[in-house]
Amino acid sequence: MSEKTTQSWTDDPQPLLRAGEGFRLDDVDPKSTPGYDGNKKSGRQDLKTSVPELADLQERLFAAHHDEESGPAVLLVLQAMDTAGKGGIVRHVVGSVDPQGVELASFKAPTKKELAHDFLWRIRPRVPGPGMIGVFDRSHYEDVLIAKVRGLADGKEIGRRYKAINAFEAELAEAGVRIIKVMLHISPDEQKDRLMERLDRPDKYWKYNPSDVDERLLWPDYMKAYQAVFEATSTEIAPWYVVPGNRKWYARLAIQRLLLNALRTIDPQWPGADFDIEIERERLAES
Amino acid sequence: MSEKTTQSWTDDPQPLLRAGEGFRLDDVDPKSTPGYDGNKKSGRQDLKTSVPELADLQERLFAAHHDEESGPAVLLVLQAMDTAGKGGIVRHVVGSVDPQGVELASFKAPTKKELAHDFLWRIRPRVPGPGMIGVFDRSHYEDVLIAKVRGLADGKEIGRRYKAINAFEAELAEAGVRIIKVMLHISPDEQKDRLMERLDRPDKYWKYNPSDVDERLLWPDYMKAYQAVFEATSTEIAPWYVVPGNRKWYARLAIQRLLLNALRTIDPQWPGADFDIEIERERLAES
């Protein structure tokens, strides 16, 4: 952990945010800032300070592995209630590294064609290749969240899907994909304020959908469905992290840190020359 | 044109860079900065100054059109000799807007499967959808550049491809895609310096390929092939721009400006509410 990146961190947030054994979503305060002692101003500054390291690690990952048939990759899965700030994570955290090394997949309500296949069918082709950072803006977890809350699948089918997800993620991990699953957690009041803002600003109307309120009315059911997801799918190889989201600056900083930790663990190295440097210098000089 | 974005521009660079009637690639000085009176420092500052406008226009384009079946999009085609700085354009210009509104396609040497199809087969699915900014890092033009220089296709076939390209691009323009085709133009000496740097720095080895020198030895043939491409495919609806690339800061600034101009012409507007705002305020307040 380099000194530059830890100005206002008191602890590595990763274990604090992890949905492990005995985790209760109800106990998480969406306004809290686990492991961080600073404020909005220092948070923004610390986010900026870590960009060079994140960009360097991303470039190394890409350089070392993007041409390989198999190799390490990172997959950030983002799930949340509406307005929680997924877009801001993509823009301000993921957007700070080279777009050439990022694969972004946004999963909307499945199409008729997608529904005709198993729920993982549309997910598999979007898994990041070696050397890449993949981001899922919503994911296969919709199929055990909205599907459960809305009764689109019965309990037995939801149970089958949990197992299928765990098997799928184990397969990815085996192939070298480090999976970071994040639930951005805001409070219902915060969501109300953010939705209201969308109704107050003509440049935000496009982000508002009347169905957002319908989903909002099911808030307790969604929280139960998330809790069940954590219990069924927060595994050793693909743990869930619940990131308090009322303070956008904290969520961005925390997720940047989860990415940094994953990349530091991969510790990608600049690949050596697979050519004779001296010969190439001569060829180039003569050209 | 807002005042903020024109500090050191003396002229709109777009007409100055355009490969129009009578254009000669030989006449372009790769060190020049057409339409711009500043230096590296002011160039970097001016690039930064225009980011908010570019990001705002990009967000409007996305908001207004990304859910439509058809509608405006922007396609930036980047072609260049090795080391000219395509990656820097993607990172520093395109990378300054929301990644969710960008579709990046990088075209390498075609696979066996791709070669079994017409050369446009792999290109078509990568055309940006409505509301998106697409970037082609290399493109269908490889099939009339390296293909010509390396004799992978005869003169008749190259002629057929020019026509197929013009028909394809006319079809895209008809569908609302604004096409900006850019050749980043560096000098052979500048390329030599940049390749040499890749041989001097272990963190750059991965960017070096001995075949770069082979291609470099064919420089005059490539310049002839580019000249022929401009003559055959710099059309009204999809003109070519030759952007001097020895000064990276200028190339970035100029291409940012081409993107700004295209987006300003589309002039995307925030979409109106397709719901009753008052009713939604009430529903939300009660929720």
Structure characterization notes:
The structure is a homodimer of 287-residue chains. Helix content of chain A is 45%, strand content 11%. The first copy, chain A, has a single domain (3-281), classed as Rossmann fold (3-Layer(aba) Sandwich). The first copy, chain A, has twelve helices and five strands.
What is shown here, in short?
The first copy, chain A, is of the alpha/beta class and 287 residues long. Helices cover 45% and strands 11% of the residues of chain A. The first copy, chain A, has helices at 13-17, 40-49, 51-65, 86-92, 112-115, 146-149, 155-174, 188-200, 210-216, 219-233, 248-266, 277-286; strands at 73-80, 102-106, 133-137, 177-185, 240-244.
pLDDT < 50 runs, ≥5 residues of chain A: none
Largest sheet of chain A: 5 strands, parallel
Number of helical stretches of at least 4 residues of chain A? 12
Kindly, what is the distance between the CA atoms of the first and last residues of chain A, rounded to a whole number of angstroms? 45 Å
3D shape of chain A: globular
Order of helices and strands of chain A: HHHEHEHEHHEHHHEHH
**Strand element count of chain A:** 5
The pLDDT mean of chain A sits at 96
What is the strand and helix layout of this fold?
Two copies of one chain form a homodimer.
Chain A: H1 13-17, H2 40-49, H3 51-65, E1 73-80, H4 86-92, E2 102-106, H5 112-115, E3 133-137, H6 146-149, H7 155-174, E4 177-185, H8 188-200, H9 210-216, H10 219-233, E5 240-244, H11 248-266, H12 277-286
Parallel strand pairs in A: 1-3, 1-4, 2-3, 4-5
Helix pairs in contact in A: 2-11, 3-11
